[in-house]
Design brief:
The complex is a heterodimer of chains A (648) and B (250). In chain A, a hairpin with a 4-residue loop joins β1 (73-74) and β2. A two-stranded antiparallel ribbon of chain A has the order 1-2. Chain A has 648 residues and is mostly helical. Chain A contains 22 helices and two strands. In chain B, 36% of the residues lie in helices and 27% in strands. The chains are: A mainly alpha (648), B alpha/beta (250). At the A-B interface, α6, α7 and α12 of A face α2, α3, α4 and α6 of B.
Chain lengths: 648, 250
């Protein structure tokens, strides 16, 4: 018995050196592969920036710092300045925050703190769905619903009540800076609501219970014990939403009126950096193109600063900021040692019975306040959810009859016509989107996964911080800039491919890459150290710990991250606008232009189009919305088991 | 000894799982009542019933009644009730974004105390009563979470005392503390018994013996034995109690 056991052990030990050698080589290979992925991403990022700088260098040389303030954009005279676009960008984004912060926070507080528990998950889901709706869908919802409403109701009202003194002057046009701000606000609301909700939920239960045990109402509990600690997270969500608003192109171009001027009033048409790029880039040549590149560079710098700032704030909140925040420290009263208000020795409590006597009246008042907060939060949630409901209804009303016909998915686009049109389908855009997203995933998922693994498992110190920030910055990079970069890079080296399926696929892969990398890194980090250590203690080589134990432990979070990235790519317009070209026909080769869902919708509503295309675009919108619902449901289902925070 | 809390046929559930069965006993005023028993026997749930935190958790329900000074607490407003029945938790939970002063003042502010001198006086008295005044006198503006674990727990006691409760519920207040901090809290409890009805849940039998006047032994959600601490520990009526207090199981 003993002897055979010893024999077993000896035989087993004899195998160790070979296993160790093998593991060492595989481990090196694994590490090398993941390093290469991260390096590839970083090189791409550096290339992106260098390219933008180089392409705008001639204009920078010509106008220098004056470009930032120049008020004109005269193509014929070759005089360019960024002033109106910068001001328009900041103005619309500020308006967006004025709309989105109270609405988003109200919705977050309702769905995290105040609503009945059984309702909270559903509310949060509906709000988060708003973040997945493609911007092209928001764009034409704005055109169909928001612009007429602003023109007929809101703007006349503002002119009557607030008037010139508050910056409301001129005619109610509907297509102006204010409307652009509102649609940006509508689009920013889900981000603020979803991320703030996460920050609120991260506050431990015992803090809430401590406040409840003191007799605090739900609202008071939120105020005393929850909002403070969640502060940095909420601030981060707001800045992140700001980053999105600054870079949004499609929705703005649809409603802002596209006039290159310093808007004299909130009700004047204007422009923004991103929307002016959409407006002018495709037919720009020579010096105008260089100037447009400089606009892109400015947009990149602004959004980079904002995104990195947001991530720093969010990271601080994740690391558990404690103690009064800077604002409270500054505002807070100072208490001299000994408390000057103390007049009597401990135990003589003459003032206390007065408080007791006031207590019932006081409680009534507090309940009224709590009820008012609930009403406000419900109103906020209503405003946050209304656009989603409204645009879904429109898409169903106008698109259902088209989208329910099976041939809609198999027939090519009908020829443009005005009357007695033949029925067609959207097989070409569907096919294009599938191919583009497929190609993009093929590139972005493995590279992003490996880069995320390297960041979480191997990178240390400054490299980790720096690469993390680069990824963060690129998660929020305005997608119009991705399109700009890919288009121009191809134009320089392979002009024949500048508008092709391959360029579009690459643009989408640049969009997806940082999302996948970041989702991977976050997912891997949720696997506790003890799990890793217990695997190492069993003699697992490092790479096996990663592949077997760590990746296995967070599989569903990885699936979710990838799904969300696919969702973003499938609904993307701005990155494809310059890169896939436009064709009504099906796929005819990777080097040829190709049509895709979101660009088709954009084309149908804003480009050369006929009523039968608009009808098909409604159908396509409905298909996109259903796809987003399916993706978010799948993401949610795959997360349900593990309960990992969604990467944003 | 007048009954402060009167527990009448109290049962409680989490979802379908019943955790308390038909409890009947009385907690006297100005005395310390310890509740002992193995983990998961419903001690904390009982405390959470007494200030109606139990009902905050979804899917829970209770039957029977708890009377506070003869009034059923189910008929009181939960907010008013929680002002009269304070609670200290197992892990110290100061509000992390508030200073020492504001932590103690939080309950007072909720009650509408605004005047500077009243707040100062109230905070001062609560800190003195919690035995923390000398240690934080010069650090009132420091974050509450910057104190040591034992100080944080006394800060939480001060926070509960500031609103002048009649009953103080303590849920294993020392289990996260070292022996020295524990000794200070125990000394504090001995002082508090002269003014409050203190109910303390503890895993530490020696602590129950040291600080309490009365002891209730819970087992699997049922009250096995209730009486003076001396009687429960040294002259148990029930075999189960004797086995537990002598360390034969638990």
């Amino acid at each position: 018995m003993e002897g055979s056991g010893d024999g077993e052990a000896t035989r087993f030990r004899a195998r160790i050196p070979r296993a160790v050698r093998r593991a060492r080589w595989i481990g090196l290979g694994f590490r090398g592969g993941t390093t290469a992925a991260l390096v590839a991403f970083l090189l791409l990022a550096v290339g992106f920036v260098l390219f933008l700088v180089r392409a705008s260098l001639p204009e920078i040389r010509r106008t220098g710092i004056g470009f930032l303030f120049g008020p004109h954009w005269y193509v014929t005279a070759g005089v360019y300045g960024a002033g109106p676009a910068i001001v328009g960008t900041l103005l619309t984004s500020a308006l967006a925050l004025i709309f989105a912060v109270p609405v988003g926070l109200g919705a977050a507080i309702l769905s995290a703190e105040v609503a009945p528990r059984w309702l909270r998950g559903a509310l949060a889901y509906v709000v988060e769905l708003g973040a997945m709706v493609p911007s092209v869908v928001y764009a034409f919802w704005a055109l169909v619903v928001l612009v007429p409403y602003m023109k007929r109701v809101v703007e006349p009202f503002l002119l009557r009540t607030l008037g010139v003194g508050f910056g409301f002057a001129g005619l109610p046009l509907g297509q102006d800076v204010l409307t652009a701000g509102v649609i940006l606000g509508v689009m920013a609301t889900p981000t603020i609501a979803a991320l703030s909700r996460e920050a609120l939920l991260a506050v431990p239960r015992e803090r809430r219970e401590a406040a409840r045990a003191l007799g605090a109402t739900r609202w008071e509990t939120a105020r005393i014990a929850v909002l403070g600690p969640a502060g940095p997270g909420i601030a981060g969500s707001i800045v992140l939403a700001l980053g999105r608003a600054l870079g949004e192109a499609i929705a703005v171009v649809a409603v802002i009126g596209n006039t290159y001027q310093y808007p004299p009033s909130f009700l004047s048409p204007g422009t923004t950096l991103a929307s002016w790029l959409v407006n002018g880039f495709s037919d720009a040549i020579g010096t105008q193109r260089e100037a447009l590149f400089e606009l892109g560079l400015i947009l990149f710098a602004i959004s980079m600063a904002v995104n990195v700032g947001a991530r720093l704030a969010l990271r601080r909140s994740a690391s558990g900021a404690e103690g009064p925040g800077p604002l409270r420290r500054w505002l807070g009263r100072r208490h001299r040692p000994g408390l000057p208000g103390v007049t009597a020795a401990a135990g003589s409590e003459a003032w206390w019975p007065g408080v007791i006597a006031r207590r019932p009246r006081r409680i009534l008042r507090r309940k009224v306040v709590a009820a008012v907060v609930v009403v406000l939060a419900v109103a906020a949630l209503g405003i946050a959810v209304y656009p989603l409901v409204s645009l879904s209804r429109l898409a169903v009303e106008n698109g259902a009859s088209v989208a329910l016909r099976p041939s809609f998915y198999t027939e090519p686009l009908p020829p443009p016509c005005l009357r007695n049109c033949s029925l067609g389908g959207i097989s070409a855009p569907i096919q294009g989107t599938l191919l583009l997203v497929g190609l993009a995933s093929l590139v972005a998922v493995p590279v992003g996964l490996c880069a995320g693994i390297y960041l979480s498992e191997y990178a240390r110190g400054r490299l980790r911080t720096a690469s993390g920030l680069v990824i963060d910055a690129f998660v929020g990079v305005p997608t119009i800039l991705i399109g700009l970069f890919v288009f121009s890079a191809f134009l320089q080296y392979r002009p024949d491919l500048a508008q092709s399926a391959i360029a579009g696929g690459l643009a989408l892969s640049i969009l997806m890459l940082p999302i996948v990398a970041r989702a991977t890194e976050i997912a891997l980090r949720t696997v506790p150290l003890t799990v890793r250590e217990s695997a190492l203690a069993l003699g697992f080589p490092r790479h096996r710990v990663t592949t077997r134990v760590v990746l296995g432990g967070c599989r569903s979070a990885l699936v979710t991250g990838t799904l969300l990235a696919v969702g973003r790519a499938a609904g993307e317009t701005a990155a494809l606008l310059f890169t896939v070209g436009w064709t009504p026909y099906g796929f005819s080769g990777w080097d040829q232009p190709v049509s895709a869902m979101a660009p088709f919708i954009f084309q149908a509503f804003w480009g050369d189009s006929t009523p039968n295309w608009v009808r098909d675009a409604w159908g396509a919108t409905l298909v996109l919305l259903v796809l987003m619902v399916l993706i978010s449901l799948a993401a949610r289902l795959s997360l349900r088991s593990t309960n990992v925070a969604l990467p944003e | 000894m007048a009954a402060k809390l009167d527990i009448r046929e109290l049962s409680a559930w989490y979802g379908r799982r019943q955790v308390l069965y038909d409890l009947r006993f009385s907690v006297p005023d100005r005395a310390v009542t310890a509740i002992i028993g193995p983990s998961g026997c419903g001690k904390s749930t009982f405390l959470r019933c007494a200030n109606r935190l139990h009902e905050e958790v979804p899917g829970t329900r209770t039957e029977g009644a708890i009377l506070l000074d003869g009034q059923p607490i189910a008929g009181l407003d939960p907010i008013a009730l929680r002002c009269r029945v304070g609670m200290v938790f197992q892990r110290p939970a100061p509000f992390p974004n508030l200073s020492v002063f504001e932590n103690v003042a939080a309950g007072l502010r909720l009650l509408g105390v605004r005047r500077r001198d009243e707040l100062d006086q109230g905070v001062y008295e609560a800190l003195v009563a919690a035995g923390l005044w000398e240690e934080v006198e010069s650090a009132l503006d420091a974050p509450g979470v910057s104190l040591s674990g034992g100080q944080q727990q006394r800060l939480c006691i001060a926070r509960a005392l500031a609103v002048h409760p009649e009953v103080l519920l303590m849920d294993e207040p020392c289990s996260a503390l070292d022996p020295i901090a524990t000794a200070r809290i125990e000394a504090l409890i001995a002082k508090l018994r002269s003014a409050y009805a203190v109910v303390i849940v503890t895993h530490n039998l020696a602590q129950a013996l040291r600080v309490s006047d009365l002891t209730a032994f819970f087992y699997l959600g049922k009250l096995v034995e209730f009486g003076s601490t001396d009687q429960v520990f040294h002259h148990s009526q029930e075999k189960l109690t004797e086995n537990y207090v002598t360390g034969r199981f638990g």
